[in-house]
Design goal:
Blueprint: H1 8-15, H2 19-27, E1 35-36, E2 42-43, H3 46-58, H4 65-79, H5 86-129
Antiparallel strand pairs: 1-2
Helix pairs in contact: 4-5
Length: 134
Amino acid sequence: MSSEHMQIGEVAARTELSLRTIRHYEETGLVIPSARSQGGFRLYTESDVARLMVIRRMKPLGFTLDQMRDLLEATDRLDSGEELAADEREALLERVRGYEQDAAEQVEKLRTQLARAEEFAATLRARLTRVPAL
């Protein structure tokens, strides 16, 4: 087994995803392990880990599995090294731009939620410091 291949446990540790979650992404076809060991264990490459990190970053922003698949298909095509027609390349880049804009909007919403949560926690702390000693 070459050093560039990892078993699922190492991938889980690297990505901070559970084995169950990784297997779910395999079942849905988002990540397909690149190889198998002689013992039949699935083996993963750095490329597989990178795909899982894309998925991990998209999930908290509310992207669906279909959207994750769509983005990964677009980036796979752009990164394939194949010569792409200018219009296809532009269409793929436009798809990626759409996800970038959606992600930026979600980040702004999360910033607002975080600011409100911090204000709320601060008001509770202030309230607790005003409690008269018995």
